[in-house]
Structure to design on (561 residues):
């Protein structure tokens, strides 16, 4: 009997070692190439009527039988440069999860001291509906008087007080009307909307498919997004030396004091890129010279830090972060990486982009029900054998930045397998940095449900330190719908004990071979009160291939009413 237990103990240790062997803090050094200074991009000054557009500028709502367009992210679906997780290693991981639990340690032993808090609901209105693209990728942002939402490949302006529509849904390409440009003649995809709080401008962007080599950026001339005047920028991702074009997929913009920072993914094992565009010149409608750094594979996207509330300290670099499944990429342990982009606009060739912190985090699994898919089609839904993607490899929009004076904060989330059996939940992190110090993991949490699958999250913090996490929830008997979790600043670290807000009950599944649920949703905070959250995500009112709907939801958390 003693021998049996000895063997069992040895086997347990072997399982632990084999599954955790990559979880040391050390890892191979990431080679960063750059800076690459790209040719000057000249703007187009545009006057366009958004309130009375031609019928050709308004996308018709998709209906069954209409054609659909795939945004093209399927090129990432074969894991490309990333190793899969073989059946044996997956078996070991499942055994480890059974014995030791794969849940976030910081949330394991928490005791919630009071009744769950509830949100104070605000607007809950319909956003843009199916445009003919199989995924919407809904995003948005909030300004002093407006909410601007964008999907593939349209945008719309709403009155933030009443929810009234101030424009029709409009093709993003309409902003480039009569310019005879690539951005006019194609449909910009993977949109991002940002409100520049200090500059009082709106930024709307998207890349052009199918080549995905062109980035389209529109900057308004004022705080009213229904105004007529815009500065338009169109640039091609092309090496300035050998003139080799490359992809700029999964683009993510942020508004920083010295730059509009951008991250993109080349895919197919080609790595990723980070960019800086001189914000002051774009606000003035002047030409800009993009500065870029390149990181090799693995193609795990980086998110640029996007501020809410007080601005970063003077001279602060632009912060970027991502999570890395070390076991999956064969390069160190599970971790969060933080990078600093310091751009020198006087001498762009002296700009730097460096890895400043590699932070060990609770182990996580980014592979769900397959061994080689980046997109991982694993989420069940009712009345359909079609399963939805998890997109567990990449961080989810956005990386929110806050400056509290005595510390800076970065907040983001990603989807993980919570139990080793393909059950999706959301891992989230708050990183903190005291003045003149490094980043640390202040708290990390795992938000999941034993019955539901949670995925496609977005997380933000209000000015009081309360956190809201929005996401899609689905299982074999619950249609994909929109839900929101939250925590108050004084809650135990790593927890989301607030009562779940079921913002939208789904009423249909995505069918007919379309597994692509989407790449992201968007949680943002109102700059006027620094309390009101605005969230946009997708759902279906009835089952179909591409007849998705979107919703725009506002709410506040206790102690910030």
């Amino acid at each position: 009997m003693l021998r049996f237990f000895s063997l069992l103990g040895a086997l347990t240790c072997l399982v632990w070692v084999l599954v955790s062997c990559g979880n040391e803090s050390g890892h191979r050094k990431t080679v960063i190439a750059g800076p690459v200074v790209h040719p000057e991009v000249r703007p187009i000054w545009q006057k366009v009527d958004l309130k009375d557009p031609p019928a050709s500028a308004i996308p018709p709502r998709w209906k069954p039988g209409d054609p659909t367009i795939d945004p093209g992210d399927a090129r990432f679906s074969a894991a490309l440069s990333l190793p899969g997780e073989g059946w044996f290693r997956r078996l070991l991981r499942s055994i480890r999860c059974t014995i030791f639990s794969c849940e976030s340690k910081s949330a394991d032993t928490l005791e919630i001291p009071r009744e769950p808090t509830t949100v104070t609901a605000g607007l809950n209105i319909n956003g843009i509906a199916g445009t003919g693209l199989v995924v919407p990728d809904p995003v948005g942002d909030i300004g002093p008087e407006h909410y601007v939402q964008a999907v593939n490949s349209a945008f719309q302006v709403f009155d933030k007080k009443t929810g009234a529509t101030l424009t029709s849904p409009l093709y993003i390409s309409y902003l480039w009307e009569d310019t005879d440009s690539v951005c006019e003649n194609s449909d910009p995809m993977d949109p991002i909307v940002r409100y520049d709080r200090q500059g009082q401008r709106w930024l709307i962007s998207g890349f052009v498919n199918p080549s995905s080599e062109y980035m389209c950026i529109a900057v308004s001339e004022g705080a009213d997004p229904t105004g007529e005047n815009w500065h338009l920028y169109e640039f091609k991702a092309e090496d300035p030396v050998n003139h080799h074009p490359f992809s700029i997929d999964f683009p993510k913009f942020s508004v920083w004091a010295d730059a509009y920072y951008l991250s993109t993914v080349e895919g197919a094992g080609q790595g990723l890129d980070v960019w800086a565009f001189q914000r002051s010149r774009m606000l003035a409608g002047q030409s800009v010279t993009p500065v870029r750094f390149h990181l090799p594979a693995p193609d795990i996207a980086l998110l640029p830090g996007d501020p809410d509330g007080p601005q970063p300290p003077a001279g602060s670099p632009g912060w970027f972060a991502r999570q890395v499944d070390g076991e999956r990429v064969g390069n160190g342990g599970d971790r969060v990486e933080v990078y600093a982009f310091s751009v020198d606009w006087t001498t762009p060739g002296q700009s730097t982009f460096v890895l400043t912190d590699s932070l060990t985090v609770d182990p996580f699994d980014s592979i769900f029900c397959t061994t080689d898919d980046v997109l991982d089609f694993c989420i069940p839904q009712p009345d359909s054998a079609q399963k939805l993607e998890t997109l567990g490899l990449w961080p989810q929009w956005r990386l929110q930045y806050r400056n509290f004076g005595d510390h800076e904060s970065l907040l983001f989330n990603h989807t993980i397998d919570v139990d080793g059996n393909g059950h999706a939940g959301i891992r989230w992190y708050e990183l903190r940095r005291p003045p003149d110090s490094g980043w640390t993991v202040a708290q990390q949490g795992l938000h999941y449900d034993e019955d539901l699958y949670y995925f496609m999250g977005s997380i933000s913090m209000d000015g009081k330190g309360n956190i809201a996490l929005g996401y899609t929830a689905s299982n074999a008997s619950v249609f994909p719908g929109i839900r929101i979790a939250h925590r108050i600043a004084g809650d135990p670290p790593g927890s989301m004990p607030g009562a779940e807000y079921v913002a939208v009950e789904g009423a249909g599944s995505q069918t007919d071979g379309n597994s692509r649920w989407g790449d992201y949703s968007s949680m943002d905070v109102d700059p006027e009160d620094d309390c009101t959250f605005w969230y946009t995500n997708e759902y279906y009112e009835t089952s179909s291939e591409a007849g998705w709907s979107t919703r725009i939801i506002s709410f506040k958390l206790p102690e910030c009413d």
